[in-house]
Structures are given as structure tokens and as C-alpha cells.
Amino acid sequence: MRPPKLNIPSQALDVLTAIESAGSKGYFAGPCIAELKRGGSPMDYDIITNADFEELLYIFRDMRIISQNEAMSTVMVSALGLVVQVSTYRSSVSDGKAVYTDNYILDLASRDFSAFAMAYHPRKGIKDPFDGESCIKDGKITLKALGEYPIRLWRENDLDNNELTLKLSVQSSLISEPFNILKALRLAAGENYLIDRVTASSIRKNAELIRGLPHRELFRSLTSLLLSRNISSVIRDYPEVFTAAAPELSDAAGCNDEYGGLALWEHIARTVEFSPPFEDLRYAALFHNAGFPHCKCICSDGSVRRYGHAEYARILLSSFFERSKADKQLRLAADFLLELHDTVITDDRVELKRLMKRLGEKDLKRLIKLRIADDTANPEVHEGKIAMYRRALQTIDDIVDTKECYSPSMLAIKPSDLVRTRLAADMGQAEKIINTLFEAVLEQPKLNVAPVLTDMVKKSCRR
Predict the structure, then answer these.
(1) Alpha-carbon distance 271 to 262, whole Å?
(2) How would DSSP label each residue in 223-280?
């Protein structure tokens, strides 16, 4: 019986043919196989081979090599626009260098999840020592971490019909490489990926391992996760991972108090997902109520207030950013949002122009978007309030599009004009006049014409 064929592009098959024509062996492997099995179209393809790095350079001497990594014995080949990564069989990676093996099954055993530990050859079909095919159903991939399931015996005839018998004893890929914990969550927060029950339990159990990762790399992985489409369920279901990555969130994750009828951690998770996928907005959303457990005050009438929670959240986020060596621009942007996220905002045109003068157009819009996310995540907030915020955004865009004045610098006359025409004795007096004119123009934008403003000043002087 002929093995089922996968729909691999001819360019990728040409790369495999080049390897075999040189006398080496090769298989397609990794996520591209899982993607093809579930009916998708991979953006690139991976091939594993017994050829070493020098042999790979020779094999592809007449093709375009777009990158190469000798330590990992990997080359990236462009085959008529399709990128194919070719790597020597490896059993592990130690100190940034690949540890090689002569057996492709041991290469598969060093991978992260069963669905990504399959190999394929057009003549031999799919090689699946870790039951990866069972993880693919109805267009979805279930992530099962290698090493979380019983040891098995694998027998087969390889490409040369030599008998292979291997007893595969694999360490948990979540323990050997803690970055896989974050990778699993990132995939689950995307689309069409689920996490197996046993793997989910292991993620929670071993979450603390990510604290041993380099802070900067951990921060990059966490940031990538935060920008995922379906992030709220992951934050809600795996608080252990987020508190391991950012211990500053521990009290918020463990808080039993409700916010808007929801558990505090649930509200935070929903706010993050409702925020636009930008780093400053997502981090501000993640930390915006992190100070709540520390700022609970019971007033004389029995009501509960959270005085100073924004300031406490700023301290917590600053601590996290400092340890993570976060970019200064991101720190300032997220701190701005936390500092002002309780600012009173209406859709009144004049009040919006005052806020635009104070905060700037772009920063005010970011602030409103955070408020929309925060209130959308709160079931107790009436939808009319959220609609008002959206009207405010539309009004800001209209103010900008019509070049309506929202700053003294946008007035049709300048302080220097007043001094030059002797309508002001000095720059100090001119600034005061300009501010008075600005207040008038806020209410009546059509007054912002140089002759009209000059006439207003002259009439004021006559009085």
C-alpha cells in the first residue's frame, strides 16, 4: 500500500532531491507537517538530514542560501521564493550549539510537542513515533508535550530498509526547555491550537521554571504572548505562568475580591484582550488593577474604596520593566496610561480639545482605548458609556481632520505678532493675550482667523 502523499510544493521537493542526489538522507519535519495534515498552507518548510554543515554548503552551492548558522548546522535556502530550512539531525542543543545524532528519530525526540515531532518522506510517508497524528483533528492541533507520556518502543525500516529499534526515553520538553511553556500558551492564544489536559497540568506545575530564564528573553516571549488574539483565556487559566514571569502580579492573581461582578484576575484578563494589540496598551491593561489588593480602604459608611491603586500599579510595572530591561519608550508610554487611566473623559468637543492640549491627540486616543477595554471588561458598565468613548474618538479624529484649534500654538496669530504690531508690550503680556484668545477659539473655532483675532485684541485695548 502506497503511503498517503502530502501536498508539498515542488520547490521544497527540489531541495530534498538535491540532498539525496548528493548521497545524504533527508525528511521534512516539524510544524510544516502538522500544518499540512490539518489542511493549512505552511509559510516555510523544514528538512532534517544526516549531512553535516560543510556538506550542506556544498550541496546548495548553486542555490541561494539566505542565512547559515554553523553552531546549529542550519542553512536557509530560497527555492524560487520558497524558504526551506535545512538542519543536520540533532539530539539536543547545549550552550547554543547543536549536539548531533545519526538518527532522525532522535532528532524528533528532541522537539517540543508531539504534533511537531513528525517526519515525512514522499516514498516512506509519515513517521510518527510520538502519536502526533492523533493530535490533529477537525482543523485543530492539540499540544502534547514530549516526555509527558509513557516510554515506547519504535520499530521501522529506514530509507535504506535497515531495521531500526529504539526505546525512546524522553525528558519532558517543558522541563528541558521552559520556553516551551510560553510557546504552548502563545499557540493556544492564537488560533486552532488546544493544550492537552496532561500538558496543561504540567505547565501549571512547572511554571516556576521560567523564572530561571534570562530576563530579557523571558520579557520578549511574554510580550509576544500578550499580543496574541485570544489572550484572555490563557491569562485566566494559567495565572501560575504570568506570576512566575511577573511576580508583581501574584497578589492580583490570588485576590478573591470581585471587580464589576467578576474575580479581579478575570477582569484583568478580559481587559488585556479588549485592548488593541500594542505593547504599551497590553502591559498597562495587565497591570492596571494590580495594585487593588494593596489599596483596599473601608470607609465609615461601609463602602470599599481603592485609593492610590493607580500609583501602586505604576510601582509594580516599573519594577517589572526594570528587571526586564524594557525599552525606555515602552516604560514611559505604559506609565502614562497607568497614571491617567482614571481621567474623566466625555464626548464634549470643547472638553476634548482641552484634553488634547494637555495630553496630545495620540496619547489621548490611547488613553480612551484603554478606558474602552477596561469598561468593556466590566459587565456592570452600561454600554452607553462605552458608546460615548467611541464618539469621543470620532470627535478627536474630526477635530484633527478639520484642523480645528486645540492648542495656543495653532492660533492664527503668535505672541511675536502681538509684540511686533505693538498690541502687547512684551512677550509676557503677549502670552496672556494668546491664552485669552485661545479660550475664545475653543468655544468658537471660526474665530481663528488672523484679522478677526487681531481686531479682538485691538477692541480689548480700547476698552
Answers:
(1) 12
(2) HHHHTSTTHHHHHHH-HHHHHHH-GGGHHHHT---EETTEEHHHHHHHHHHHS-S-HH
Report residue 213 CA to chain centroid gap.
Answer: 18
Short-list 173, 126, 124, 169, CA closest to 146: 173
Buried b or exposed e, range 94-117, using 16+ CB within 10 angstroms = eeeebebbeebbbbbbbbbbbbbb
- Percent composition of the chain: helix, strand, coil (DSSP 3-state, to 5): 50, 15, 30
Contacting residues for 307 by C-beta, under 8 A, at least 6 apart: 295, 297
For residue range 202-261, what is the model confidence (pLDDT) as tens digits? Answer: 999 999 999 999 999 999 999 999 999 999 999 999 999 999 999 999 999 998 888 878
Q: Which of 54, 12, 3, 56 is nearest to 35 (CA)?
A: 12
pLDDT band at 87 (very low <50, low <70, confident <90, very high): very high
CB neighbours (10 Å) of residue 402? 9
> Which numeric CATH code is attached to 10-172?
3.30.460.10
Q: Contact 268/288 with Cβ under 8 angstroms?
A: yes
Q: What are the sequence ranges of the domains in the chain?
A: 10-172, 178-245, 256-404, 411-462
Cα 388 to the center of its chain, rounded Å: 28
**Beta bridge partners of residue 77, listed in sequence order:** 65, 84
| CA 440 to centroid of chain Cα atoms | 45
Strand partners, 79: 82
Cell of 33: 507537517
In this structure, of 97-101, 397-401, 402-406, 448-452, the range with the lowest mean pLDDT score is: 97-101
> CA 360, CA 365: separation in Å to the nearest integer?
9
Average pLDDT over residues 61-66: 91
Assess contact for 89 and 107: CB atoms under 8 A.
yes
User: What cell numbers appear for 15 in the block?
Assistant: 531541495
| DSSP helix/strand/coil, 60 | coil
